[in-house]
User: Which sequence fits this backbone?
């Protein structure tokens, strides 16, 4: 297996809201990435979409969430494990900085786990990733008066963007994933793509050392939002530390139903969750009475800590 890292640069901003149109996060989850790639694959034919779905279900292709990068610094989610800085005893400022951090530089993960990490300096540095803005637009419906609405978007600073990791089986699959990503770069990812948001450039592609991912460890951190299969659940959650995320939303298919319909909600385990036992997860059908299945990707890539 090969581990590839794809870097995305967003020159015109991206809308990655979940609960409100006027909000936007600075990252997206693996299920969002898979759904976007699957919709793009359908444009190229049912056989390409079936290939992507089959490879994901079998675990021959796996996706991480998207995480920030700044220049040559690549961030990973903060592990959901108790870590206390050596110098934090009695210092509430340092403790709060540790608690509020969402991401840790990849090269400093070991230092963070050992408590030898400057959380205040890192939090200050992450403030240079970019900024979120809210744009006011007007909607006109028939002859009604114009109604204003607000759209949140995140704009990355120069040299900053998002990257994700793909675990892949062979070179042919690698080429096909690259082609889908190249096609998706023009369509965009996230919301409000008709306004130009979410379009990206494939900035860099790197191969990661598989040893970092396939060595044995006492704890395994998921780099993807995921959900164990029913027969994996008990072992996976034993002594695990995790955060639950509710994933829902509307179906982005005109053929699914004659009106907008919601997907079934799925409660998943966030990236950064830590486990003693690895699991496979699955790609779940979250359709609810529509004309075709709707898939929610929920398979992890694990990093031993």
Assistant:
């Amino acid at each position: 297996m090969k581990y590839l890292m794809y870097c995305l640069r967003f020159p015109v901003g991206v809308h990655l809201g979940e609960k409100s149109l006027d909000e936007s996060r600075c990252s997206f989850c693996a299920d969002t990435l898979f759904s976007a790639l699957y919709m793009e694959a359908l444009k190229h034919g049912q056989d390409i979409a079936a290939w992507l779905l089959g490879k994901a279900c079998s675990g021959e292709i796996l996706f991480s969430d998207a995480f920030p990068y700044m220049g040559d610094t690549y961030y990973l989610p903060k592990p959901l494990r108790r870590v206390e800085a050596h110098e934090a005893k009695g210092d509430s400022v340092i403790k709060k900085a540790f608690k509020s951090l969402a991401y840790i530089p990849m090269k400093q993960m070991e230092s963070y786990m050992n408590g030898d990490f400057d959380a205040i300096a890192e939090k200050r540095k992450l403030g240079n990733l970019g900024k979120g803005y809210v744009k006011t637009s007007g909607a006109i419906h028939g002859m009604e008066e114009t109604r204003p609405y607000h759209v949140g978007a995140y704009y990355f600073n120069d040299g900053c963007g998002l990257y994700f990791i793909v675990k892949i089986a062979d070179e042919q699959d690698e080429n096909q994933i690259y082609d889908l990503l190249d096609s998706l770069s023009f369509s965009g990812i996230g919301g409000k793509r008709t306004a130009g948001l979410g379009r990206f450039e494939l900035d860099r592609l790197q191969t990661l050392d598989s040893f970092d991912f396939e060595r044995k460890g006492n704890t395994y951190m998921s780099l993807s939002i995921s959900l164990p299969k029913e027969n994996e659940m008990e072992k996976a959650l034993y002594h695990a530390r995790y955060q639950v995320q509710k994933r829902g939303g509307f179906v982005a298919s005109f053929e699914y139903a004659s009106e907008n319909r919601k997907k079934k909600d799925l409660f998943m385990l966030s990236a950064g969750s830590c486990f003693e036992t690895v699991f496979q997860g699955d790609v779940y059908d979250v359709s609810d009475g529509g004309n075709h299945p709707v898939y929610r990707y929920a398979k992890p890539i694990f990093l031993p800590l």
In short: The longest strand covers residues 130-139. Residues 92 and 98 are 10 Å apart (CA to CA).
